[in-house]
Amino acid sequence: MSSPIIKVEGISKKYNLLHKDGGTSDSLIESASRWARSLVSREKTHESREEFWALRDVSFEIQPGDRVGIIGRNGAGKSTLLKILSRIVLPTSGRIEYDGRMASLLEVGTGFHGDLSGRENIYLNGSILGMSKKEIDRKFDEIIDFAEVEKFLDTPVKRYSSGMYVRLAFAVAAHLEPEILIVDEVLAVGDAAFQKKCLGKMREVSGGGRTILFVSHNMAAIQNLCDKCVYLKNGQLVDYGKSELIIPQYLQSTNATSSVDLSNRPDRMGNGKLRYKSFQILDKNKQATEHAMCGSPLYIDLDVDGAAGANLSYVRLSVAFDDDYGNRITHMGNDITNQLFEKLPAGPNKIRITIPKLPLKGGEYTVTLFAEVNGEIADWIQEATLLKVEAGDFYNTGKLPESSQGSFYMEHSFERIS
Question: What is the dihedral sign for C-alpha 309, 310, 314, 316?
């Protein structure tokens, strides 16, 4: 095995938070008033300090050519870690070893001098990376073509819009041949077409053997680009490994609740011989989750309760998904699969629906539940709950379908037959 290109050993970062007179969120007028009172009365401003550990004892190794996603909720320590890796912030303890040139794009404003033009900043950044003028000249046209800012090339970048700034900053970082490219959520500033273009470029960069570190809350983008993930929570490393194992673990951890209680829904219809008690979705590992992943297996567990003494014969159950506009996207029923329950016992029953590969694109879907017993409506709950679907690599090709290309995806292939 080759030597790691980045080795992180026990990194911790502590900040000292200063609190004044009950908080630092005072308005300018309140702060000025308190200052004026202190001059007259000679009162001392009361201050307190609090230690905040943004990172604690984080260790991992990254191999050359790895594409690593850094994931976690807000406040997990992702951006702090990237700033330390980019040498913008020093760690409180621990050490990092590097082997190669690094370019980073962390936030709008980082890395460029506002008074210099776009052209001048390209050469400045190249020089910082240790490139000669000849090397930068060779890449110059590619950078401009990618960033699409040719008209503003000799304009000071402080006059750029945030979108223009990020386009040029990313183009510079990706094209000046660093061995390590670090990109934060800053790409979210750009439009969808630009984000897709950047993901394609990062994939191309990593294909050339270079290493990518990428922070994003968009799990589809992480899944699409990254083969490994660092999962942080409250400043600590939860896990590090293959994306296909880490992403479901993270999504499961973000759930406020994994099951919807339907026992006391007042807006249901039906004679009550059979009633839905709960609705729960499970991921490909059959773990409870609120987030379904496009292209992955999905299981739906339905708890249904048969009334005492009821004749529960010829039971038809169905689940339907509607989009934001109320359009029916799909319908699943045990009658159309020839799996009608000829007889169910009274009391609790657990029914599982298996979807081998979820075809829905990313978004939220309203779930409707329907039950029929012996030809009569027993229970019918419209808008029973929401199904949250994360966009995913449905075709397992490394390419995300356009969101405008329909509501769901189908397995298909093309071949020349004559």
Answer: negative
Per the CB < 8 A criterion, the answer to whether 35 and 174 are in contact is no
Q: Please state, in angstroms and rounded to a whole number, the distance separating the CA atoms of residues 114 and 31.
A: 31
Q: What is the DSSP letter of 288?
A: B
The single-letter DSSP state of residue 157 is G
Q: How far is CA 313 from CA 316, 341, 400, in A?
A: 9, 7, 45
Q: Which residues pair with 408 in a beta bridge?
A: 360
Q: What is the pLDDT of residues 89-148, one digit of tens each?
A: 899 999 999 888 887 777 655 567 888 898 898 888 778 767 788 888 888 988 888 888
| Tokens coding 198 | 């950047």
Q: Which residues are bridge partners to 290 per DSSP?
A: none
Q: Are 367 and 319 in contact (CB under 8 A)?
A: yes
Decide the pairing of beta strands 211-215 and 93-98.
Answer: unpaired
Q: How far is CA 324 from CA 155, 192, 197, 230, 382, in A?
A: 43, 20, 28, 33, 14
- Look at phi and psi of residue 125 and say left if phi exceeds 0, alpha if psi is from -120 to 50, else beta: alpha
End-to-end CA distance of the chain: 46
How many other C-beta atoms lie within 10 A of the C-beta of residue 267? 9
d(CA 209, CA 18): 44
Please state, in angstroms and rounded to a whole number, the distance separating the CA atoms of residues 246 and 60: 15
Give dist(CA 359, CA 292) in Å, integer: 11
Amino acid in position 360: L
Architecture of domain 260-390: Distorted Sandwich (2.70)
Phi, psi of 236 (to 5 degrees): -115, 150
Report yes or no: 59 and 11 within 8 Å, Cβ to Cβ.
yes
Beta-carbon neighbour count of residue 90 at 10 Å? 8
Model confidence pLDDT, tens digit, residues 278-320: 999 998 889 888 788 899 999 999 999 999 999 999 999 999 9
Query: From CA 129, how far away is CA 119, in angstroms rounded?
Result: 16
What's at 209, amino acid-wise? G
DSSP 46: P
Helix, strand, or coil here: 324? coil
Q: Where are the domains of the chain?
A: 6-253, 260-390
- Phi and psi at residue 147, in whole multiples of 5°? -75, -25
The answer to whether domain 6-253 has CATH 2.60.120.260 is: no
